Amino acid sequence: MVSIKGYKNTGIKLSNRFSSLAISSTPAMEEESESTKRPNWLDLPSDLTANIFKRLSVLTILSDVSLVCTQWLKICKNPLTWRTIYMPKYIDANPWEMEKICYNAVKLSCGHLESIIIEDYYGTSDLLKLIADNGSHLRCMKVMNYNIVTDEEFSDVVRKLPRLEKVFVPVFHTAEATLEALGRSCPLLKWLQYNSCSLDSCDSDKMAFLIAETMPGLCHLDMRGHKLTELGVLAIIDKCPLLEYLDISFCLNLNEDLKKRCIDQIKDLQLPYVIRKGALTRKGD
């Protein structure tokens, strides 16, 4: 059983704004008419309260809401509360403390996790392994890291997540093992973001060939930063006929025929920006 404790060292000032919501009616309030009486939040059905909690941040639930009363604590421990975990980037937060909070939230999901999005850079190997162990129903995953996790480690995690439909691949030098694992192990995959800032054209094309060969069902592909050649682009549009969104905004050397085919085939196409006569335009406009 996972315990929920207050988190005092996150570097974020937390309010106790929820505690007042759970206070029972005072004698003065009881004298008021039924039409003007202030509602007691504890009288809400548990499923409705849980639905409200899902709209709050993980930090708020674990640091504030769970401390209000035993009834709310029980709801906070319900695995269904943690089907979706969203961790935004907190400017003043200690990343290691935030990782602990996220780790605890994943444990509380008890295998019911469906979506996890982490916008800050604390996606460690231990956290990823825990996500994999609780992710039999996981459909969406975005985990950032500062190269703490290797391509091989990430691919091992992906192989345990066969229901993935939407995934953000961390920026490795290359992600050959991860892309192959995604293509072979995640047949429902429809959305892939794999950006790069360091790959040369040869490596970028190699990644494109892997995607084209193993992910024919993609509808959304973001390869921003990849210096693809025409061969890489052609492989993608040939083998991924369902694509509606494609970002190849760092591919600078498309011939006119291939450019026209991309424009005709892809509903939302992100082509490179070029400076033309002092104006910033897209190739193909």
Automatic annotation (TrEMBL):
<protein>
    <submittedName>
        <fullName>F-box/LRR protein</fullName>
    </submittedName>
</protein>
<dbReference type="InterPro" id="IPR032675">
    <property type="entry name" value="LRR_dom_sf"/>
</dbReference>
<dbReference type="InterPro" id="IPR001810">
    <property type="entry name" value="F-box_dom"/>
</dbReference>
<dbReference type="Pfam" id="PF12937">
    <property type="entry name" value="F-box-like"/>
</dbReference>
<dbReference type="GO" id="GO:1905761">
    <property type="term" value="F:SCF ubiquitin ligase complex binding"/>
</dbReference>
<feature type="domain" description="F-box">
    <location>
        <begin position="38"/>
        <end position="85"/>
    </location>
</feature>
